[in-house]
Amino acid sequence: MNLLQLENVENELQFESYTNEDVLNLGMTLVNYANENNKAVAIHIERNRVPIFTHLMDGTSEENVFWLYRKKPIY
Description:
Radius of gyration: 14 Å
Strand order of the largest sheet: 1-2
Shape: globular
Order of helices and strands: HHEEH
Largest sheet: 2 strands, antiparallel
Strand content: 15-25%
Low-confidence stretches: none
Number of strands: 2
Number of helices: 3
């Protein structure tokens, strides 16, 4: 993927709104997608460093929690 393609993807993924309800819907969409594809995922979504949606599916482990927090940007 080249830089122009990445820019297009980034523009496509912009949210028009980002309310707690939007985050809940996004989180549940990700959970449903993972279920449909037989994947066990850990999901953590924040806004302004405040957790809004966290879900660890059956089949995930404590290591997934550590991984989520290692990937968070430090402000």
